[in-house]
Design goal:
By secondary structure, this protein is α+β, with helices and mostly antiparallel strands. It has 15 helices and 16 strands. The protein folds into two domains: 98 residues, Ubiquitin-like (UB roll) (Roll), CATH 3.10.20; 352 residues, Creatine Kinase, Chain A, domain 2, CATH 3.30.590.
Amino acid sequence: SDLLNFIKENNIKRISFHYTALDGRLKQLIIPVNSMDYAERVLAAGERVDGSSLFKKMVPAGGSDLYVVPDYSTAFINPFDPDSISLICRYLDKNEKLAEFAPDNILAKAAQQIRDDFGMELWGLGELEFYIIGEKGQNPFQMSSQSGYHEGRPFSHFQPMLLEMIDIIAGITGHVKYGHSEVGVIQNIQSANEEINGKYAEQFEVEFMPAPIEKAADFCSIAKWVVRSVAAKHNCMITFIPKLEKKHAGTGMHFHLELLKKEDNQMTNPDGSLSDIAKIAIGGLCDNARVLTAFGNTTISSYLRLVPNQESPTSVFWSDMNRSAMVRVPLGWKKGEDTASLINHKLKERYVSPFKRQTIELRTSDGSAHIHLLLAAITKTIHTALGNREKYLSLAEKHYLQPGNANTERFPDLPASCYQSAMILVNEKEKFGGIFPDYLIEWLHQSLLDEDDKDLRERLSQMSPAEQSAYHRNLMHQDLHIR
C-alpha cells in the first residue's frame, strides 16, 4: 500500500522492473501505470520474461518462461526517467520457486547458510573501478601517465561526471563511501577499435559502505548501470575491462568482507588485533584463491592485469596493508574513530564510534567478474571455513607474509590464463555443491575455455614486438562492454 500511495501521490507514470541477467547487466522492463488497479496487479504478480534470452545456453527455448517479481525494499525513483519508479526483481521458475540458476538467488542461498549454521552475517563492499573514455578537450592542466590517484580539478578532466555518478548512486543505495580518481591516465589510446582509438581515458573508483552481501552485489550492478548511463549522456564511454593498455593501471573489482554477529563486527579482538574468525575467513579464501578466479577473472585480459609490479596479486598470500597481496588487511581504526581529536586539539567533545571498521579485502577479481556468482562462491568458501576452524586457521598462518618481506616464492601462483582457471574449476567444483547447479558450473567452465588462451604464450613468442603489441591490444579491446 505504501508503494501504491507513493505512485498515486507523485503521479508516477511508469514502473521499471530491473534484474541482473547472466551477462551481468541490469535489464529493464518498462510498465505503464494504466490505472492504480493495474499497478497493484503488476506489483503483486510480477511479470513474465524470456529466460532463454536472459540466460543463454542455460535455459532451453522450449521452456523458457520465468517470472520476475519485485523486491519492494529496493524501490527508487529512476534517475534517468523521473516519472518512473524502479524496483530490483528476483527470478521465479514455472513452479513459482526461486530459480536455482539465477545468480542473485544462488548468492542469497549461500548467505542464508551462514546465518542458519553459524548465526553470523557476511557483509561486503565493492570497489567499482572503471575508465571514462572521451575527447580530451582543451584543458591546459594535464596529468602524466599513472599519476591520476586522488587527483582533482582542474587536472581531472572528467571529475564533474564522477560527481554526478556519486550523487545518483548514493541517492539510490544510501551506501556510497566515496569516489575518487584512480591511477590510470591514458592520453591517446591506440586501438583497432574505432570506438576508442585516439581517445583520452581517466580511471575512477566508486567505493561502497558495507552491506549484507546480497545487497552489496545489487549495489554494484546498479552502479554499473548508473555510470554507463551518465557517461552516455556526456557522449563518453565507460569500460570495466581488466586491462585497457599495457603499462597502464588495470581495472580491478576488489571486495571487502566482514562477518557480523548480532550486528557486531567479528573481525577484531578487544585490543584491535585481527580475530581468529577473520583469519579463518582468510584461510578459506587462500584455500580457494585459484578456483575463485573462475568467477572473478573471466576474460583473457584478466591475466594481462595479474602481473607483477602493478599492485595486483600473482600468488596466494595475505598480508597487512600490502597492495600486491591476494588478501589485504587494511587499516581499521583499531583505537576507535576519534582520530580527528589528534589533529584538532581544542575539541571539547569526543566522538565515540558505534562501529568497528575492520575488513579483509580480496584483490584478485576484476571488471569481468560475474558479481553475484563471485560473491556466492566467496560466501560458500567462508561457510566451509567456519565449519572447520582449526584447519583454516592453520591455512591462514601458512599463507601469511610479514610486512616488509617481499619474498613470495613459497606461495602457490594464481592461474595465468582462463584455460588454467577452467581446469581448476572442473577439478574443484565439488567445493560449491549444494549452491551452484552442475550445469551452471559447466557453463562457466565452457565460457572460460571459449576465451581460447591455452597456448597464448606460444602464439606471442612467434610474433615480432610490434605484432605482439597489436595482438595484445586486440585481446584487451575485444569486449569493451563486458558485464
